[in-house]
Amino acid sequence: MNDYMVAAISGGKDSTAMLLLMLERGMPIDAVIYADTGMDFPEMGAHIEKLDELLYRERGQHIITVQHPKGFEWMVFEEPKVAPSSIEKRLERGIPAYGNGWPGPRMRWCTGHLKTKLVDKAIGQLKGERNAIQYVGIAADEAKRCKDDKHKRYPLVEWGITEEQALQICYDRGFDWDGLYKIYSRCSCWCCPLQRIGELRKLRQYHPDLWRRLLDMDRRAIEMYGDTPLGRFKDNWTVEQLDKRFAAEERQSSLLDKEDDL
Question: N or C: which end of the chain has fewer CB within 10 A?
Fold first, then answer.
């Protein structure tokens, strides 16, 4: 019985390059699965559609999209806590017994609940009695992220393809995310608290509608959870504080530009 070969993609440059090269090299693919968190940039939707069209032309397959039935914001603010110990601790601290708050380095619950578990469940339903092998889009210069797992393969690492090369492979084949990678270094969830402040500055500038949503979400988190890890977007910054910081930087830059023109 042959293995069931699955390409799990995020839609970013590395997993996209992996899928493109797998198609070009005639590698076996039984399914392509994309986990939609609901918090991807709008441009990502068009990218996935374009990738799906290519997959259908080449293999007669469509990308299988999996998504949490409630979504990211429900998990941040509304998911009921079940464990009595968790409920008791929250009540003692005056925190609602529902919602997970902002994810963070120590509690990165979003990746597991909105991506990994959904992909694993889909693979389990699709593979039947066959042994599943999952292709993962990690580039060669990120090989430290690879896991020693006989059920996972890392084609870009095997081929020695770096992140920079992966992006160029995508560009060369007409996949450009409508310029997202010209702005941001990564195109994962736009609301991620783990992204650098420079990326958030760009979000405010280039996607002001998403920035306004982020402001609203952070105000709600602070109101619900207060100054706790659940309510902190970043350890030292609220989104509103960042908004004021970025606005001040813009004013200062504008004044310097005017002085240069004198």
Answer: C
Token digits for 93?
């601290």
What radius of gyration do the chain's Cα atoms show? 21
Q: Model confidence over 156-210: pLDDT tens digits?
A: 999 999 999 999 999 999 999 999 999 999 998 999 999 999 999 999 999 999 9
Query: Which is it for strands 4-9 and 31-35: parallel, antiparallel or unpaired?
Result: parallel
Residue 207 CB contacts under 8 Å (≥ 6 apart), including other chains = 41, 190
CA distance 103 to 106: 8
pTM: 0.91
All structural domains of the chain, each given as residue ranges with its CATH number in brackets, are 4-185 (3.40.50.620), 196-262 (no CATH)
The gap between the terminal CA atoms of the chain, to the nearest Å, is 77
Which residue, among 1, 10, 2, 50, has the nearest Cα to 32 in the 3D structure?
Answer: 10
Overall residue count recorded for the chain in this entry:
262
